């Protein structure tokens, strides 16, 4: 088993252990036709929503974008079957988020998202 598989299994273990915190969401890819029409394609993902800690603010690559009302989202890389993009949105329950920024590890075992409510 390669090191990449160890990281992927580790993420799956975390999501299994924290199953009470895991929610089902929709990663919505917005395709613009270049005119006045756009199409949304939805992909189901598992996500843990949390608040950013001071440690996150100090170490995240997008630290300068984090606002006090922002939400942190954690999604296993295995749940993302299309490219992650900040022009797409995430829906969890009745909340709809703009993806302001994201980061991942080199093998994309897990994505950390900076989410902002669209209200």
Characterize the structure shown:
- The protein has a 6-stranded antiparallel β-barrel.
- It has a single domain (3-117), classed as Thrombin, subunit H (Beta Barrel).
- 18% of the residues lie in helices and 44% in strands.
- β4 and β5 form a beta hairpin.
- It contains 2 helices and 6 strands; from the N terminus they run αββαββββ.
- The model has no long low-confidence stretch (mean pLDDT 91).
- The chain has helices at 3-17, 54-59; strands at 22-32, 38-50, 71-76, 89-92, 95-104, 110-117.
- It has 119 residues and is an alpha+beta fold.
| Beta-strand percentage range | 35-45%
Task: Give helix and strand order, one letter per element, not per position.
Answer: HEEHEEEE
Spatial shape = globular
Rg, Cα atoms, Å: 15 Å
Q: Considering the protein shown, what is the CATH homologous superfamily?
A: Bacteriophage SPP1 head-tail adaptor protein
* Uncertain runs: none
Q: What is the level 1 CATH name?
A: Mainly Beta
Strand order of the largest sheet: 1-2-3-6-5-4
Provide mean pLDDT, rounded.
91
Annotation field: number of helices: 2
How helical, in percent, are the residues?
Answer: 10-25%
Largest sheet: 6 strands, antiparallel, barrel
Quick take:
This protein has 119 residues and is α+β, with helices and mostly antiparallel strands. 18% of the residues lie in helices and 44% in strands. It has one domain (3-117): Beta Barrel (Thrombin, subunit H), CATH 2.40.10.
């Amino acid at each position: 088993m390669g090191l990449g598989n160890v990281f992927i299994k580790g993420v799956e273990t975390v999501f299994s252990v924290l199953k009470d915190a895991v929610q089902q969401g929709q990663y919505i890819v917005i395709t613009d036709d270049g005119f006045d029409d756009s199409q949304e394609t939805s992909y189901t993902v598992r996500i843990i929503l949390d608040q950013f800690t001071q440690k996150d603010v100090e170490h995240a690559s997008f630290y300068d974008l984090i606002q006090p009302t922002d939400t942190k989202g954690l999604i296993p890389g295995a749940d993302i079957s299309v490219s992650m993009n900040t022009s797409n949105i995430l829906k969890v329950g009745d909340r709809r988020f703009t993806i302001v920024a994201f980061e991942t590890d080199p093998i994309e075992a897990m994505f950390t998202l900076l989410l902002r409510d669209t209200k």
